[in-house]
Amino acid sequence: MFDITAVKIGEKIKKGELSAVDVTVATIDRINALSGHYNEFITLDVQGAVAQAERVQKGIERGEFLSALAGVPFVVKDNICVKGMKMTCASKMLENFVSPYDATVITRLRKAGAIILGKTNMDEFAMGSTGENSYFGATLNPYDERRVAGGSSSGSAVAAALREGFYSLGTDTGGSIRQPCAYCGVTGIKTTYGVVSRYGLVAHASSLEQIGPMAVDAETCAAVLDLICGKDKFDSTTVDYNVEYLNSISNDIKGLKIGVLSESFSDKTDKTLGDNVLKVCDTLKYFGAQAEMFSMPITQYTLPAYYVISSAEASSNLARYDGVRYGLRSNFCNNIEELYVNSRSEGFGDEVKRRILLGTLVLSAGYYDDYYKLALRARETVKKAFEKAFEKYDVILSPTTPKVAPKINSIIKPIDMYFGDAYTVAVNLAGLPAVSFPCGFSDGLPTGAQLIGPAFSDAKLLNIVHQYQQITDYHKKTPECKKEGQV
Predict the structure, then answer these.
(1) How far, in Å, CA of 290 to CA of 282, rounded?
(2) What angle do CA 334, 340, 345 make, to 5 degrees?
(3) What's the mean pLDDT in 171-197?
(4) Catalytic residue from among 152, 156, 310, 315
(5) d(CA 352, CA 356)
(6) I need a labelling partner for 419 at 20 to 30 A (CA). Which of 71, 102, 291, 330 fits?
(7) Which residues pair with residue 71 across a beta bridge?
(8) CATH homologous superfamily of domain 6-251+457-476?
(9) pTM of the model
(10) CA distances from residue 203 to 80, 192, 475 in whole angstroms, order as listed
């Protein structure tokens, strides 16, 4: 059962060859056999999941649930609200917070008959690139337990790689879906800004982040997008743009023009990883695609611009955690000022504090023009550079990350961690869609390629990756679980 995709599982459930209950119970058994070692889960709702499966199965038999993923279990990153379930953001600040409502994406998936298994580990408040910045401990890479799983959607990537749920939801602010997908050998999409509602997502950097699916293959990602995309009255940034993603992934890609971003093949990129990405072009040429190298020099400024803007927005968004309304409240305070300071000092981890301080600095009167305003201008320049590139190319190809997953505790300087996002942040600055997908291995570790497209080309990107996955098997590889008692 765990060797086939979510769409195939959904088909079998509709035909009566499998039941939603049996699939859910089998997946929970698999999670119980594996998850204690990789630390990918924060909350697992066994009773709730089985109860959901029983209700959905009866609805399927009555013809009430017709979606491609009805009865198929999935997992959710722990910064997305699920009513009645803990929503911690992997932070001491929200350690005991229970969400009073469902995020829009959860409401839509419930309506389609999807089964929620639990919440996955992550970097605290989605700030990090390794999965080590969690109050509940680091998430381990399923291909090598000595290495990181990537961040911030670390748990969702590991769960997808281990088939602990047939897909997962993550969030991408500067690469937080794509980067852990690359490290863990799975497929994930950062959608065009506004395609998926952010209502019920705990805000980190509101102008950059998007919710998106992570799964074994592009077909599953397309099926999930069919259910979660579209205009939402609770999120004014959403757009009324609906596409049948699943029906769009069998289109011909003959004549496709691929621009290969030369700046992402510098000496900072692992050679084997880079070679694997370049081989993607050879595979796509089989379908009639064309590829050539091109340069976009503005990419050297995307990382500093991103961290100025994202930190500024984080500083503003996280101001609400003050010990007054919800979240951790310090017991060591004699006045309101001590309540604020002590609650935030005790509740936030080092990386979150670092970004709040940086964001507060760049928004202050003395530095606003020199840093924040300059970063906004750089952002507009990045958008224009992509627009110009897409006048010539249909899509842009690059490695998702400069290197394979680093070892745990090997990154000492924060700036080195930030460089792990060097090839992903430009997409968020420009509000564009991008898909990361496995394209090979280097010393036994997965390598990921990234396809970037113009706004609202999400379906086209998934179709290209789907075609690639029809004649390659990198996405079918699963980690070898060596611990006794594991599946």
Answers:
(1) 9
(2) 105
(3) 98
(4) 152
(5) 6
(6) 291
(7) none
(8) Amidase signature (AS) domain (3.90.1300.10)
(9) 0.96
(10) 10, 17, 31
Quick one: tokens of 390?
């897409």
Closest CA to 459 of 243, 254, 280: 243
Per annotation, catalytic residue among 19, 67, 77, 134: 77
Strand order in the sheet with 168-172: 41-44, 115-120, 73-77, 168-172, 210-215, 187-190, 434-442, 445-452, 395-399, 257-261, 290-294
Residue 35 has pLDDT above 80, yes or no: no
Q: Catalytic residue, from 176, 264, 310, 315: name it.
A: 176
Cis upstream peptide for 152 (omega within 30°): yes
Amino acid identity, position 259 = G
Average per-residue pLDDT for the chain: 95
Structural domain boundaries of the chain? 6-251+457-476
Residue 128 is encoded by which pair of tokens? 């990090």
176 carries an active-site annotation: yes
pLDDT digits (tens, 9 = 90+) for 90-126: 999 999 999 999 999 999 999 999 999 999 999 999 9
